[in-house]
Amino acid sequence: MIETLIGMFIIFMIIGAIIALETTDLLSSVISVGAIGVAVSICFLLVGAPDIASTQLVVEVLTIIILIKATIRHDLVTIEGDREFFGLTITLVLLFVLFVFGIKAFSGLPQFGSPAISEFPRAASNRYLLSGFEETGSSNIISSIIFDYRGIDILAHIYVLFAGIWGALAIMRVHSRKKKRKDIDGKDQ
Description:
Elements: H1 2-22, H2 26-46, H3 50-74, H4 85-107, H5 116-119, H6 124-136, H7 141-149, H8 151-188
Helix pairs in contact: 1-2, 2-3, 3-8, 6-7
C-alpha cells in the first residue's frame, strides 16, 4: 500500500519536473517545483520520517516564497478569457487523486481510542519509553529522546532551518538596499 502511494508520488514528481522544465511561464515553473517539494515531504511522511518531512516542508515554503518574489518582478502574466480545457482537466484529476489519497490515508489509521503503540511493537518509541530512563539516566523521557537518541539529527534540522531563514533574509535585504539606492538617486536629481 505505502509502496504504491510512494510510486504514485514519484510519477507526480516526474510530471511536475517535466512541467517545470517545459513551461515558458516562470510562475508556473516555480509552482511546479513547489508541488514537487510537497510531494517529497509527503513521501518522507509515508516512510516514517515526520521530522525530515516537516523540515522539507519548511525549507520548501521558504524557497517558494523567495522564488515567487523573484519571479513576479520578471514575469507578470495575466489570464484573459476562458481557462484552457486541458489545464482544468489536469487540475480536476489531481484534486481527485489527492481526495482518494486522503480517504485511503484516513482509513489506514488505528481506531480512535486504541493506543497506536500497541499496534507497532517494534517501533522506536516503544524502546524509548521502555528503556529510555535506564539507557540515558535522564529523569525526563522527552529530553532524553531529543538530546540523547536524536541529538545530531535535531541539530542538523536546526542548521537547515537557520540556513533557510538566513538565505531569505539575505535576498530580501539585497532587494531593499537596491530600492533605497534608487530612492536616494531619484531624490538627488
